[in-house]
Amino acid sequence: MDIFSLGCVIGELFTDGRQLFDLSQLLELRSKQGEYSPEILLKKIADKPVRRMIRHMIQRDPAERLTAQEYLKVYKGDVFPDYFYSFLHGYFKQFSITMQLTPDKCIQKLYRDAEPILANLLLDKRDKDRETGYGDALVIILSAITSHLRLTQFASSKLQALEMMKRISRHISDECILERAVPYLVLLVKDKWPAVRAEAIRTLTHCLCLVRHVPRSDVNLFPEYILQSLVHVPSDKEVVVKIAFAECVADLAKTAHRFLELAQLKANQDADETSGIMQYQVQGSYDSELTQLQQSIQSKIVHLLTDSGSLVKKALLRHSAGKLCEFFGPLRANEAILSHMITFLNDKTDWDLHAAFFESIVSVARLLGYRSLPILEPLVHQGLSSPEETVVCKTIAAVTSVAERKLFDRNHLVKHVKLIAPFLVHPNIWVRYEAVGFLCCCDHQVDEVDTECFVYPLVKPYFKHPVFQLQNELVVLSAMKESVPRGVLDYLLKQQNLEEIFKCLKRKSEGEKEPIKSHLLPVFRRLQTLGLNEHHEASLLQLKDILLKQTVNKQLFAEQDPQQGPRGVIDCKLLPRVVSRQQKLTYSPPRPQLPLTSSSTSKRRTVSKASSGSDSKITGSEDWDRIFGSELAPRSKSSTKPSQPTPIPTSTHRRTHLSVHSSGSPRTTTKGGVGSLGSSPKLSVQTLSREEMSRSTENVLSRGRDPETGALEDQERKTPGHKRSRSEGSSATMAVSVGQSGVQAGGDERTVQPQVTPRREKKLSPPYLPRPRNAVENASCIEGLKLLLDYKQRQYAEDMQAMDNELVKNTCFQSSSRWVPKGQLVAHIHEHKDSINRVRVLLDSPVFATFSSDGTTKLWDVQKLEGRNLINKAKLSYTQLGGQVKTGVFCLNNTAIAAASSNGNIHIFPIDVDKERGRSGTSATIASTASSSYASGNRVKPLLESFVDPAAEGQIVEMAHFTAGGQNLLSYVTTKGRLCGLDLRSNETVWRLTNNPKFGLVLSMAVDPYENWVALGTSLGYHVIWDMRFQLPIRHWQHTGHQKHTHVHAVHHLSPHPTDPPSLISAVSGNNEVSVWDMETATRRQMLWASPAPPFGEMTDKPHQQESVRGLTTCVFDDHPVILTGGTDRIVRLWNLRDPDRCCCVVKPKYLKRIQFDYQFKVIEGVEVTKEITQSVMSSSGGPSSPDGLPPPEACSHQHSHVDFVTDLSVVPYKNQQFIVSVSHDGVLKLWK
Predict the structure, then answer these.
(1) Which residues form the Protein kinase domain (predicted)?
(2) What's the whole-model pTM score?
């Protein structure tokens, strides 16, 4: 396009589409004799600079025309505004040249750049609204938005476009809003996305409210265009659209009325002032159009007022009711609004709708005036008697607002004072404040004589002393009597014989000495325990009428509550209210010979957690009766036979075990809804000791059910049982047994004799659960549900038992014998040339691996080290990693080792190990081929290699192997906080997480035995917990010492608790401190302190306060959780977390030969502290013996202790013995027993 053509196009734009030339005129202009000139058309262009530029661009001689660049320079500021050069041209150039964007991307970019666009294109950057001027340049942005809006595909893009239009409309002219924005908004009202339709209604209302001058061509915009486009909205099937319309309908109605008034004003100005007939016609037209407009709006709000959902009604009440009353006027408002609003109170299930009603009734009453009082009075009575205190509070506030507008006369004020005065002693503080506000308002409305004669006598009983200034709220509040206790009021509202209770209180207040009826004695005793006294009794009598009405209304609410379903029907929405988060529904048949206390069957047990104080309660038969119904069909008969005792699956988590016992014997229908032997139901709570749990877990029974009779079958499963342990203060394991049991009473103890019918074992699957024969349909459904529950409970119990067994084997070593380390040196090996960083033990075997800074990974066998071999050496040495080997882990079903070095290399290489699983007498050894084929690490070829850039990611700190859910992942963490998962099947990183850098460098990592979480320890003392199910950081906390003092406590080592996985063991720098943290509450529960400094003291530069634990391992000995630690002071300590008297020093340096170690237990600031105390002894003999068979302190080994600090240690089992492996910074490996 040349300059001439461009001038013709610009001229056509400024002349409303009229062409400057047609073909004949162009041919005439081209001829030399042509005399045609478009000057007549150009004179119609009002802008002189534009007219002058167009005239110059369409000159006949091309030489006289300028170039495009020259026109931009010449007419800068006259035709082309400055923002075109500074911002607009360069910005829009991105859309056409720099980037090829879809319409959705264009709108998203415009939305992101909204702030700089408004800042650059507003004529006055200080203008933030339309009061001072318009941003004409924003019309270009609006055109860009509307042009792309036609082709958008996503709802999010349309919502962003609507938000941009709403912001731009504040800065553009009325004409642009009506001609450029409204047509697109009306189109979006019919969009397919409900969210877009709702937002389009709000944006359309916002834009129309900004219009102040209506052109003559748009005077009929609402009746002929806007309202016609919104006809379908009140009947839209989406609630969100109807809510948006309910919020905006009042503003639309007022805007339509304003448009009609503007049209009337212009019509009056145009009418002949001397022609009365013309003015009468104009007035008649206005009245008829207003009536039509009101009818049109009324037809739309009727659908909203009669909508089946309460959300639409609440939106209409809170946003539009008052404005609609002003729009309709007093007469039509009563018919169109108030008559429908009153019906909202008939809904007894939605108290929020009632509250919204009383919030909006004030504006309606204000408009209707005194005519609303007969209607308002019964509504106030209903609101004050509502069982929801929020509704009562809103009702009193509404009455106060009506009184402030002086719509009540003296008689009505006194009547409402009598109604509201009893709320001055209500336990809800907001209700009392609203009552005081109404009382002060009444004092302002009446004179002093009426106050003394009518108002004050009604409120005097509620004051402690006389009050002379009722208009002062502070004075009234200070003089009020004590309110009724909340517990007393709630207890009374639950009573069925409330009226009889009030009669008894009234007789007591009148001085009658008639004794209280026997059936009311427990009620009054309960009220006295809740804090009822004589003053409260007088207040309750004043609240009598209100409480009686609230009781009736509460019953009506309960009858209409949709959550109260029929018996035998389970409502999934109610399950979170019934089942506690820490309860576990598991299957377990009754245990024989378990003593029960007499109170265990009548009281509910509460399992309290020491760290958080949260309670988990076991509900009785009432909850079962509600879920399963009161009638249960009998099951098929079968013979009974005693079965093997079945253990309750134990778990290291602190849970409440809820187990349902069932049998194949016939049941009888009981009142509690639970079948039992005989005629009375048995619901027993069994509190099991830790010893009983340990004995019971030795036999795990497999359970099946006969598909014909549904009877249970138990058989022993040959699975090694492991004794589980818990701390002394932990929650007791409970079992609620419901089913057939024989009971023997003897003194205060009862013994349960279970009877279980054995059947041939068949596997069940949920889709093919058996149905009882010869049963009615309802009973068969209940039986089918019970079979499904039994199957799921058995399946869950078996899964939990398997997980617990795997947990014990994977996390720590367990020993049932009372093994005590003697500190006897078995082997001293200095094969490594540099510091040994980690030692890992192969599961259930005497094989372990060491990872050293000399670049080697060595595999060792305790069988060879413990024997009488002349030469002790590693069976495998892998040297192909290079750099310093920082850590490693056994992986690939314990057939390979993964090791990582400081240069970023990760190698996975195979090992050949013969294993024979067994807890007693473990005999897994390195195969004979290892010494020949694997003697040299150069001959071993890695199975997989990977690389992590140390400069970008940091050095690898720790590694772990993830196998849960069939995965095969190698997880590692680097110093820079990169937590990654490497899939060993594809050698690809499947997830990469980043720890917050502000927490410091990562120094340690611990993995949950169930692989649900990962804990990280940092150099700044932070503990960060990652939920690996969702791969999110869920909790972090800093060491408390760092919060109190300036010293930084770096976290050198982390480990899960051996018997309580929700707890985390952390070793930090300074004072050989080891802490046990509760991860749920981020609080410290236990602390081990091996330093002369006082616990929780401030760090100093003293040598003993600089000692730190660098190596840590957890075990379970004799059902006690134990921690073995070693660190910079070269001492190996054994800490018993349950019994501090059994803590001891296993290995100590020679310079501590004359030092005796004792351990003291204290509770400091709520933390259990075990502190090491040292004292000098005169000789190594004759000292006091240690309790529980422990070696005396002076017998600890010191002849062959480490000469450099201990970097790591672990426990290795072999032939019913336990060996301690400790490694040090100088590359020495020592084996102790």
Answers:
(1) 1-92
(2) 0.48
